Amino acid sequence: MARHLITSAIPYINGIKHLGNLIGSQLPADLFARYQRARGHEVLFLCATDEHGTPAELAAAKAGQPVAQYCAEMHELQSKIAAGFRLSFDHFGRSSSAQNHRLTQHFAGRLAEAGLIREVAEKQMYSPTDGRYLPDRYIEGTCPNCGFEDARGDQCDNCTKQLDPTDLINPRSTISGATDLEERETKHLYLAQSQMRDQLQAWIDSKTDWPILTTSIAKKWLNDGDGLQDRGITRDLDWGIPVRKGTELWPGMEDKVFYVWFDAPIEYIAAAQEWQDAGKGSDWERWWRTDKGAQDVTYTQFMGKDNVPFHTLSFPATILGSGEPWKLVDYIKSFNYLNYDGGQFSTSRGRGVFMDQALEILPADYWRWWLLSNAPESSDAEFTWDLFQANTNKDLADVLGNFVSRVTKFCRSKFGETVPEGGAWGDQEEALIKELDNRLRAYEGFMESMEVRKAAAELRAIWVAGNEYLQSAAPWSTFKENQQQSGAQTRLALNLIRFYAVVSSPFIPDAAAAMMSAMKTQDASWPQDVKAALGALPAGHAFEVPEVTFRKITDDEREEWKMRFAGKRD
RNA sequence: GGGCCUGUAGCUCAAUUGGUUAGAGCAGAGCGCUCAUAACGCUUUGGUUGGGGGUUCGAGUCCCUCCGGGCCUACCA
User: Which of A41, A171, A273, A408 is 20 to 30 A from A538, alpha carbon to alpha carbon?
Assistant: First the structure.
């Protein structure tokens, strides 16, 4: 039995995520976790909310709440929505946890001892009115290059010139509009990633089987310009993990906190501690310390392409730099973006479908199936309502749902609600078994290598094979002259429903559970031997005709949703 | 500006790393079936692989160039 540690990029606390965020990391991670569990492997699947930083503080202020309370409430909300999508996290943690505080401070201490932290004095814009230092993007002013009046502190949106906030003419705070900004000198800690460049380069170069999206982004950062740059890991904020050198105060850094890019990935480790402390498991180090049992763990990370630099460089630098035997990631599966109907999903403009809204209009399985079978693996992908309706109606309602329906209803009308007896398998049945065996092995291969779209296509072909079999065997015809044979065919078809439930469960867990329940079986064992698996429900076994497994999406609904999600949320 | 990814049938995607006649699903057309959610099955139409040039016995695949789409470029995560 193999052991799989699986993490999904941790979503930012600031609001409800859209479908693009979901398919970018959490959903494919869940698919992989469910598959590995179904194969009987030991899995620890972790995720969390990323709670620190300026956006969280501002969102809390806007909501009129203390930031800690805001984060606690948003965490609960995100947790609830994740459960609605059946994301099977073993633990959904928080980067603000006490465990992460200790661990982040511990790593900083170790890195300092290793000589990988240096102090840098730099100038930052401070807003007395807001009572805070302002990140570049929260400062606007007139572009010195083109005269555009709403240029941001990091870049002018009009002429695209890279800017420094101090370049702006008449700079102002985008939070309060205050113009009394002043430049202050402040000291920050930098992680000396540049010292680890060769080590990181060698590590990345050894990962020849990673998605090209992952390695190309990493290599660009390693080799661009002067090579890998050191990164600031502290900020002048209130909300965050206080800077400490291990458990000791850090002279000169008393009022500062670590920056989210430093503490967020460490939460992957802390989440395992939280998992144990919550009473869900034990011996968390067995998953994370190669000196304490994690040497045989396979660690896989899932993320959108925007997160690749931190997972390929910054976090590995943190782990390697600590000099301690922490588990390094074995495989990074990254995704492109999902667009919405010709443009991008937009949180600020309410364009596109958000996770809470999606669950209001349809069950999770519809979204899971469509998103996964159209995952943006090789390039950005696009969500349109026409495609969504056409694909889900065809795949889920017609091919799979109707199969369940036609088989169970036929059996009920001819043999009653028990698996019929008699008859024997012939050539058609052998051919079906052979095809299913071939396709199942291909499906397993795609799932192992996380080729999500190909896995979905293979699964669909497995469903189609059932319909082809029914058409050629035609138990409704054989019933007229040979009821024994019709019984054998129907018995096989009923067993296909259980078979489909088992192999489909990573994609559509609720429908799979409903199919298992209808077949009144608990036997969810993975079909090692297809022939044996299709005999799991013996003659005489009772079942019931289920409710419609997947109803169709109507044209009226499609048009209504098109309008509703075009922009301006609520 | 620099870099990366991408362009294949009306739509969404494949193509074993240069090897026969470029394949699937959807949509369209025809036929069949009648167990089923007007569902299912079979057959079938459809491509100058964005344009042009080159290397090669052979190019969707490699090189050059032009055109289109997207992303990154380090303080939004």
Answer: A41
Whole-angstrom distance, CA of residue A324 vs CA of residue A339: 41
Chain B bases closer than 7 angstroms to a protein Cβ: 2-7, 11-14, 24-27, 32-37, 39-42, 69-77
| A301 conformational bin, left if phi > 0, alpha if psi -120 to 50, beta if neither | beta
* B38 nearest neighbour residue (CA to C1'): A398
The per-residue pLDDT for range A382-419, each reduced to its tens digit, is 888 999 999 999 999 999 999 999 999 999 999 999 99
Q: Quote the ipTM score.
A: 0.89
As a whole number of angstroms, the distance between CA A353 and CA A81 comes to: 14
Q: Could you tell me if A126 and A182 are in contact, meaning their C-beta atoms sit under 8 angstroms apart?
A: yes
Amino acid residing at A489: Q
Tens digit of each residue's pLDDT (9 = 90 or more) over A101-159 = 999 999 999 999 999 999 988 888 888 888 888 877 788 888 777 777 777 777 666 66
Could you identify the residue written with the tokens 């994609």? A507
Q: Under CATH, which architecture does the A3-111+259-335 domain have?
A: 3-Layer(aba) Sandwich (3.40)
Buried b (16+ CB within 10 A) or exposed e, A25-48: bbbbbbbbbbbbbbbeeebbbbbb
Q: Is A184 helix (H, G, I), strand (E, B) or coil?
A: strand
Q: Exposure of A145 by Cβ count < 10 A (0-12 exposed, 13-18 middle, 19+ buried)?
A: middle
Query: What's the CATH code, domain A116-223?
Result: 2.170.220.10
Enumerate the CATH 2.170.220.10 domain ranges in chain A, comma separated. 116-223
Residues 361-390 of A with CB under 7 A from strand B: 374, 376-382, 387, 390
Model confidence, pTM: 0.94
